[in-house]
Amino acid sequence: MKIKVGVFFGGASVEHEISVITMNQAISSLNPEKYEIVPIYIAKNGVMYTGDDLLDLYSFKDMDVLLKRCYKVAVVNDGKGVKVVRTPAPLIGKRVLNTIDVAFPIVHGTNCEDGTIAGFVTLLGIPFVGPDIMASSIGMDKILQKKVLKESGIPVVDFVSFYSLEYIKDEEKILKEIEEKLDYPVIVKPGNLGSSVGIKKAKNKAELEEAIEFAMEFADRIIIEKAVENLKEINCSVIGNLTECETSVCEEPFFSDEILSYADKYIGNEKTKGGTIGGGKGANIKFGSQKSGGAKTTNNEFSNKKIPADISKEKTEEIQSLTKEVFKVLGCSGVARVDFLIDTKTDKVYVNEINTIPGALSFYLWEASGKSFEKELDEIIDIAIKRQRDKEKLTFSYDKNILAMQGGSKGMKSAQK
Ligand SMILES: Nc1ncnc2c1ncn2[C@@H]1O[C@H](COP(=O)(O)OP(=O)(O)O)[C@@H](O)[C@H]1O
Ligand SMILES: [Mg+2]
Question: Tens digit of pLDDT for each residue in 223-266?
């Protein structure tokens, strides 16, 4: 019997298109002997769809046609398992289209990777791949994450954070606090976005004010960080659970501007071949067809990088060890990627952030470390199944219904005491 893997992707996030690509990369490497893929596409308006056309990246060029060829569905636990049911129920034909044994969220960004989908799949009560609700939310939140990491003795840059409403109320007070605590240049970021959206560097007060106003367009909480100078960025992937994890080789992503932008991350490298779709925020994402394994080889989410990174053995080990610590402190599971900022003059390493569901599931880092994408996927699905088994050993609810054991309304009152 094959394991039915429900792959959840898309979502109401600025990284919607990236999720579609990561999902397409993953499904082309899932072992067809072991797994049956049940695609669950979450449209930007939150409606869920299933259908075979979702397995082909080319179908996403024309969303209207694609969605007409798919079924609108709800994913529900009916007490006997998790079912994918048509909604509204059809007058004729099957209502239950499929079942799911393991949920595999492949989503990026806010409203998705931030615990939203983790919560949804937790409610389904089946194993799910990747971080739980808490790890997901802290993993997406640049402010809470830095606070937790700092408290755990993990090196992060100095920072100041505040709510937009506080800034609107007393701008001067906050600007004063920033200038007292941090020297220019600083980096201004929305508190909980990804893909460099809303991020700007500021070298003086005027630029700081402008950058804050800009970041406030994207989030209601803002973080200002001391900018790392003589910057070298290094990323490292990690696979595991709370007790055991393994790290990959390191990569050095390259950037064309001061800030590694959405475009740097996702716009095509001219050398790559394949179709082009206009992705979010003007990004042209190149891809091939799933059958030719194209998305995996032509997507250049990973083409602007050096693997392994050009750093010493000692630095590599320091980064790998910090990667494991971050993964553990934040309570992650499955595959993640931890991003670092290095000041090449002082050689000091800072943890920038974790990506709890990394782009392309970091497969290119694992392939470079000798682990095939197929093996990576096998491992993270196994981790999900084992976690669910361990979880079921814990007591979350009692079989006896306390309400049924009470007498009349008097009994109810005593139950509250
Ligand atoms: N403190 C910092 N100092 C210098 N550069 C930074 C700093 N923080 C972020 N950057 C630059 O901005 C990019 C995006 O910031 P990051 O926090 O990783 O946001 P995102 O979640 O959008 O990827 C980084 O990859 C790096 O190039
Ligand atoms: Mg980043």
Answer: 999 999 999 999 999 999 989 999 999 999 986 555 555 555 55
Tell me phi and psi for residue 355, to 5 degrees: -115, 110
Query: Residue 319: is its pLDDT beyond 60?
Result: yes
User: Which residue has its alpha carbon closest to ligand 1 atom 12?
Assistant: 259
Is 141 in contact with 95 (CB distance < 8 Å)?
no
DSSP helix/strand/coil, 160 = strand
- The pLDDT assigned to 403 comes to 79
Atom 22 in ligand 1: residue holding the nearest Cα:
196
305-306 and 82-86 strand pairing: unpaired
Same domain, 284 and 353: no
Ligand 1 contacts CB of residue 231 (under 6 A):
yes
Structural domains in the chain (count): 3
Atom 21 of ligand 1, nearest CA residue: 194
Ligand nearest to the CA of 196: 1
Specify the range with the lowest mean pLDDT, choosing from 96-105, 362-371, 386-395: 386-395
| CA separation for the pair 279, 256 (Å, rounded) | 20
The enclosing domain of 184 has a CATH number of 3.30.1490.20
Cβ(319) to ligand 1 under 6 A?
Answer: no
In the predicted model, what is the mean pLDDT of the chain? Answer: 87
**pTM given for the model:** 0.88
Are 197 and 267 contained in the same domain?
Answer: no
Q: Which ligand is nearest to the CA of 253?
A: 1
Q: Quote the domain boundaries for residue 331.
A: 228-254+304-390
